[in-house]
Automatic annotation (TrEMBL), chain A:
This is Rod shape-determining protein MreD. Keywords: Membrane, Transmembrane, Transmembrane helix. It comes from the Bacteria. The chain crosses the membrane at residues 6-22, 67-88, 100-120, 132-153. It comes from Candidatus Buchananbacteria bacterium CG10_big_fil_rev_8_21_14_0_10_42_9.
TrEMBL record, chain B:
It comes from Candidatus Buchananbacteria bacterium CG10_big_fil_rev_8_21_14_0_10_42_9. The keyword Transmembrane helix applies. This is Cell shape-determining protein MreC. InterPro entries: Cell/Rod_1, Cell/Rod_MreC_2, MreC, MreC_beta-barrel_core. GO terms for biological process: regulation of cell shape. The keyword DNA damage does not apply. Gene3D superfamilies: Rod shape-determining protein MreC, domain 1, Rod shape-determining protein MreC, domain 2. The chain crosses the membrane at residues 12-32. Belongs to the MreC family. It comes from the Bacteria. It holds the Pfam family MreC. One of its GO terms (cellular component) is plasma membrane. Residues 115-262 form the Rod shape-determining protein MreC beta-barrel core domain. Keywords: Cell shape, Membrane, Transmembrane, Transmembrane helix.
Length: 167, 265
């Protein structure tokens, strides 16, 4: 019980960190997407409750600070998470680093395009192609870096536990 | 490269991470009045920390020169503001002389607000503030920093938060006048958060770098005389009827953490 509350608390904190802190950093650091990196990481867990919790909480936090129709961003994040889970169960089953990175890349591209489409319907504005590509490039590079960090931490944690159990 | 799934999350991994993000939560909650005595000192630390991110590399290691430079920039900015205010007042005096029954009152109602976020879509140059329609804020109202420096206009409101479109945003349009001999009027437009410019100025109008740009008062809710910036350069091609003036804001638009919304009827 406490374990689940702790995890949900961490998910909330990651959400607010993304919206209030990372988004306010100077370029190119504001392109880091901690939420998508977390969703990519959680998609590879055996049980999916963390993924669904994270998708819903991240979506609602983003909706709180967006001026798009309430629920649109949350629905997008949940949709991306469902696709993530399907990809994990059917294609990226080996949980290799490359699978993590491929999933991270797909997430960044999908999220960027969905946000642009939502913005197009609400603001009737689509930024120049070069701007979209540059933003997507930085977002991919920095978010993938975060995905790699998560993967390495997970590996180190597992190896340490293995050493302790054998020792 | 395979790894088995770990059933339990080790809290030791998350503790340093949780401490860092808890700081960010406090940063977010700074607009809540009841927490102010606790939050304000932490805010100062965060603000100084954010200055590290935004300071140029040449400032590092030369604290005295950097400080002196900062003070001089501040002084120049204040003088420009004073100059612009005086020029606006001179013009107003002339108008007042012509219209004896007219009295201009600058006692606006202000709503002070804290910036919560830069919004979820960084393709736009915008900020989210912690005041909304419950505080009397409406779309189109001007948002200022310090002593009348225009940051942007309210683009959308909810009950307790508002979305501010900064003047550098590509969708931003503000009616302005340039403080030259003819008080040239135009529309200031943003350019992808990088610059602001006034286009379609007739080619025969004399504009020079350093001239101050203020709001013209032609926008609904936006009073005349709010300082927008100064002319940085003028682009005038031969055989063209119009020229473009690039305007440099007198305040770095990402700098403020507290702003004011001018609430007018």
């Amino acid at each position: 019980m406490w374990h689940k509350i702790f995890i949900i608390g961490i998910i909330f904190i990651i959400g607010f960190l993304q919206v209030s802190f990372i988004q306010s950093l100077p370029a190119p650091w504001h392109h880091v997407n901690l939420m998508l990196a977390t969703i990519t990481f959680l998609a590879f867990r055996r049980t999916a409750w963390r993924l669904w919790s994270a998708a819903l909480i991240f979506g609602l936090i983003l909706d709180l600070y967006s001026f798009y129709l309430f629920g649109v961003v949350a629905a997008s994040i949940v949709f991306i998470s469902i696709i993530n889970r399907l990809l994990y169960l059917n294609f990226f089953t080996n949980r290799a680093l490359m699978s993590f990175m491929a999933m991270g890349f797909l997430n960044v591209v999908a999220y960027s395009l969905i946000i642009r489409l939502i913005s197009l319907t609400q603001n009737s504005y689509w930024p120049p192609f070069s701007t979209v590509i540059v933003n997507m490039f930085w977002s991919t590079i920095l978010t993938e870096a975060l995905v790699i960090v998560f993967f390495v931490v997970q590996q180190m944690h597992y190896r340490r536990n293995q050493i302790h159990s054998h020792g | 490269m395979r790894f088995p799934v770990v059933g339990q999350v080790n809290s030791r991994i998350f503790i340093p991470f949780a401490i860092i993000v808890a700081g960010a939560i406090l940063f977010l909650l700074r607009g809540i009045t009841i927490l102010n005595p606790v939050i304000s000192p932490i805010n100062k630390i965060f603000f100084q920390a954010s200055n590290v991110f935004s300071s140029s590399p040449k400032d590092l290691g030369q604290p005295d020169l950097a400080l002196e430079n900062e003070l001089l920039i501040e002084e120049v900015r204040n003088l420009k503001i004073e100059n612009a205010v005086l020029r606006t007042q001179v013009e107003e005096n002339e108008l007042l002389r012509q219209q004896l029954n007219f009295t201009q009152n600058y006692q606006f109602n202000y709503v002070t607000a804290a910036i919560l976020s830069r919004g979820i879509d960084r393709a736009f140059d915008q900020v989210i503030i912690d005041r909304g329609s419950a505080d009397g804020i409406k779309p189109g109202m001007p948002v200022i920093f310090g002593d009348g420096l225009l940051l942007g206009k309210v683009a959308a409101v909810q009950k307790s938060i508002s979305n501010i479109r900064l003047i550098s945003d590509q969708l931003s349009k503000v009616a302005v006048s340039i403080q030259n001999n003819g008080q040239t009027v135009g529309v200031l437009e943003g350019s992808f958060g990088l610059s602001t410019k006034v286009e379609l100025i007739p080619g025969d109008v004399e504009i020079e770098p350093g001239q101050i740009v203020v709001t013209s008062g032609l926008d609904p809710f936006v009073p005349a005389g709010l300082i927008v910036g100064e002319i940085e350069r003028v682009e005038k091609k031969t055989n063209e009827f119009f020229q473009t003036a690039y305007v440099r804001p007198l305040v770095q638009l990402s700098e403020p953490s507290i702003v004011s919304v001018i609430v007018t009827e």
